Amino acid sequence: MIKVIQNQFKRIYNTNRAFFITFGIWFILIASILLFVTKRESFQFINSHHALWADILMTLNTYVGDGICIIALALVFCFLKKWNFAKGIFGTYVFSGLVCCVLKSIFHAERPAAMFKGDPTFHVVSWLPVAYANSFPSGHTTSAFAMAATVAIISKDKRIGLFCFILAALTGYSRIYLGQHFLEDVAFGSLLGVGTTCIYFILMPMISFNKRPVSNFKLPQIKLMGAVLPVMINRNRSKQERRP
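The chain above was modelled as a monomer; its predicted structure follows.
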């Protein structure tokens, strides 16, 4: 069993080397910053550099990691009959989202809005609600990187995976820019998204009901609560996060 898992992981890595190397550089860079800069300082550096055009751009980009948009993307792939993409995006969103929700409930970390309450330098946009609780890890970043890793693993054109990585990285940046998260929330969220996606693609073929070989990325049917479960997860996240 262990050897099968190792072989499957090697297969995933070797066929998506560019994506994982790029992600590794991203994560090591952020981890290095966090070693020498406090989360308050790193947040203020990003959050203090803002403009109206960037407010609009970052608002649009942050929705890349929103649950509704992830589900909508899965439905688009269903319409296009790209079943591997649809099931992969849906499955990794649910899996990563569940793990993220558990971690949020464990840590109960305060958001930047709570730390910088009353600080005139704290920047938020008027058209988005401000969250105060459950900061660690970033749910939007987790979902965005889970989606990016899923597309990278399934897609034959690996340039698409790198493009999705850029979108996911910008989503993480937008969470800090918009005053919703700290850098450490984004860093761990990206690791969680990629990590849970790798686990998903390693384990799901092994428990397939139709006994497909583990080297086949055609995923088994996911018998969860239809499309209702991820919406419920997203709503529960929102209720917990927006508590003043």
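The chain is about 70% helix and 0% strand.
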